[in-house]
Amino acid sequence: MSKRNAAAGKGKVIKMAPKIAYRNLFHDRMSLIVTLVGIVFSVVLVAIEVGLYKGSENKIATVLDKAPADLWIVPYGTKSFDDPSLLIGHEKYAALSTPGVQYAEDMIVSFSSWRKPAGGKKSFILIGLDWPNGGTRPWSLEEGAVEDLQLPNAVAVDRSYFEDLGIEGRGDYAEINNHRIQVTAVTKGIRSFTTLPYIFTPITTARKFVGASAVQATYVLVRLEKGADVNAVRQALETRLTGAEVLTHDEFTRRSINYWMFSTGAGLALITGMVLGAIVGVVIVAQTLYASTKDHLNEFATLRALGASASYIHAVILIQALLSAVLGYAAGMLLAMLAIYRLSIRVPTLTIVMTPTIAAYLFALTVGMCVFAAITAIRKVTRIDPAGVFNR
Predict the structure, then answer these.
(1) How many other β-carbons are positioned within 10 Å of the β-carbon of residue 383?
(2) Mind telling me which InterPro entries this protein's record contains (predicted)?
(3) What are the residue ranges spanned by the domains of the chain?
C-alpha cells in the first residue's frame, strides 16, 4: 500500500514539472521577453546567414546543376567552374572511344568583354553549349526560343543584367570581343556568384568569339552507359588524357563551392555570422535561465526537502528551456521569412534560400542552444542543500 502511494505521489510530482516550469517562465514577464528577444535575434540572424550561404552555393553550381554529367574532363589545376582555360583538344573523341562512355559533349566557358551600344565595357562569362548535337540546352528562356540562338552571332542574356550590359531588351545589338552580336533570347533568374553575367550561345559561335579551334573546349561532359563502372571509366580516361583531370559531377561541384566559399573568404564571413548569432542566443538564454533559477532557489530547495529528486528539478529547468526554444523559434522564423520576402523584393539580385529542411535544422539548433544554455542553471540547482530550507 505504501509503495502504491509512493508511486502515485511520484507520478503526481512528475506531472507537475511542466506546470512549475510554465509558471517560473511566465512569472517574470520582463525576463521572458528578454529571453525571447535573444532567441528571436539569434534565429533571424542564423536563418538569413544560412539562407545566404545556401543561395551562394546554388549560384556557384547554377550551370553545373543544369548540365548533368557523370564525369567532367577539366584542364589540370582548374579551381572552379568559373576558372576556365582551354583543353588541348580532341578530349571529346578520346572519351567517346573509351569503353563505358555513352555520350560526350564539349562546353566553352570563357571570360569575355561586352561593349555596350552606348559605349563602355562590361566583363562577363561566355558559355557555349552544344545542344545542336544533343548536348545541354539553354534553360529558363523567358523570351525567344532555342532556335533563335542558331542565327549568326546570336546570344541569350538574363533580364536581370540588362542595365549592367547597357541594353533594353531582346533584339538589341552589342559587341563581344569585337564581334557584333544580337540578343535573340532572354533568360530569367540565371545569376552567377561572381555577379558577372552568364551569356549563352552555340558552341561554334563561342569558339569564334574566344579564338578556340574547332576541336577545343573548356570542359568535356561525359555520360556513361547504364551499369558502367564510374571509377573504371575515370581511370581509363586519366591514362589517355594529357593536361586534364577527370572529376565526378559531385567532385567538380564541391571543388567550385569550396573555392569560392572558403578560398576567397566569402563563406567564412557567412559562417562567422551564423556562429555569432548562435553564441548571442546561448548567452542571453543562459543568463535569463540562470537568473530565473537563482530567483527560485528557495522553492527548489523546498521541493528537494519534500523529497523531489535532482532529476525532477533538472526536468523543470529543461522544460523552461524547451518552452523558450519553441516560442522563440516560432517568432524568429516568422520574422526571418518576412525579412527574406522583403529582401527578395527590394534586392532581387540577392539569393536567400529557405527550405523545410533548413527550417527543421534551425529548430533543432534552437532547441540544442536552449538546452545547452540551461546547463549553467542546472549546475546552480545541483548545489542546493535541502536542509537549508529549515534554517530560514
Answers:
(1) 7
(2) ABC-4/HrtB_transporter (IPR051125), ABC3_permease_C (IPR003838), DevC (IPR005891), MacB_PCD (IPR025857)
(3) 1-60+267-383, 89-242
Decide: 210 and 125 in contact? Cβ < 8 Å: no
Going by C-alpha positions, the residue among 203, 155, 209, 152 that lies closest to residue 179 is 209
Residues 109 and 219: beta-carbon distance below 8 Å: yes
Q: How many C-beta neighbours within 10 Å does residue 265 have?
A: 10
Q: Could you give the count of Cα atoms lying within 13 Å of 32 in the half-sphere of its Cβ?
A: 15
Cα end-to-end span (Å), the chain: 35
| pLDDT in the model for residue 132 | 85
| Cβ 113 vs Cβ 121: under 8 Å | yes
* pLDDT given at position 23: 81
Query: How far apart are alpha carbons 169 and 152 in whole angstroms?
Result: 18
- How confident is the model over 245-276, as pLDDT tens digits? 999 999 999 999 988 888 877 777 777 877 77
Predicted pLDDT at 1: 43
Q: What is the pLDDT of residues 94-136, one digit of tens each?
A: 999 999 999 999 999 999 999 998 888 999 999 999 988 888 9
Q: How buried is residue 40: exposed, middle or buried, by Cβ count under 10 Å (0-12/13-18/19+)? A: buried
List of E strands, the chain: 71-75, 101-115, 121-129, 141-143, 154-158, 173-176, 179-187, 198-202, 219-224, 244-248
Q: Which helix (H) or strand (E) holds 3?
A: helix 2-27
Please check whether residue 301 is in contact with residue 385, taking contact to mean a CB–CB distance below 8 angstroms. yes
Amino acid occupying residue 188: K
Contacts of 327 (CB under 8 A, 6+ apart): 36, 39
For residue 209, CA distances in Å to 112, 190, 234, 329 come to 8, 21, 31, 53
d(CA 62, CA 216) in angstroms, rounded, equals 23
pLDDT at res. 387: 60
Local structure of residue 136 (DSSP, 8 states): P
CA angle 81, 115, 127 (to 5 degrees): 25
| Predicted local confidence at residue 11, as pLDDT | 52
CA 57 to the chain's CA centroid: 5
pLDDT of amino acid 133: 85
Residues of the chain with pLDDT under 70: 1-15, 281, 285, 288-289, 292-294, 296-297, 383-392
Q: Give, as one character, the DSSP assignment of residue 160.
A: G
The grid coordinates of residue 234 equal 575515370
